[in-house]
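FORM 7B: Structural annotation worksheet

SECTION A. Query
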Amino acid sequence: MTSRSKTSKLAATPTKLKLRKGDQVQVLSGKDRGQTGVIMRVLPKDDKVIVEGVNVAKKHQRQTQARIKGGIIDKDMPISASAVALICSKDGPTRVGYRINDDGTKTRICRKCGKEI
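SECTION B. Predicted structure
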């Protein structure tokens, strides 16, 4: 008789993303490499972001009372947060760092030039 051990599914712990809604980002890899857009939504549990106009898929939508018109719509799909980089106004795509000010507040900075974002 063999005993099968239960495999525990570890819950995906949300990672601390340094990207925020409204940030201007550039895609670093994938089919949309080089495109820029604004982050519309951040999904920290999945480590993904939804960028406006990037990774667009066609979705067949049924006509309902809430949505009068049915048909094929364009839907922005999530993209991995590691595949995008924040755009600095001076240096272009860059990583994000943190600086703790004298008054104890934490601000995001550009890793290339050190300027506040």
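SECTION C. Observations
The beta strands are 24-27, 36-43, 48-51, 56-61, 71-76, 79-80, 84-88, 92-94, 96-100, 106-110. The CA atoms of residues 25 and 86 lie 4 Å apart.

SECTION D. Sign-off
Analyst initials: ____
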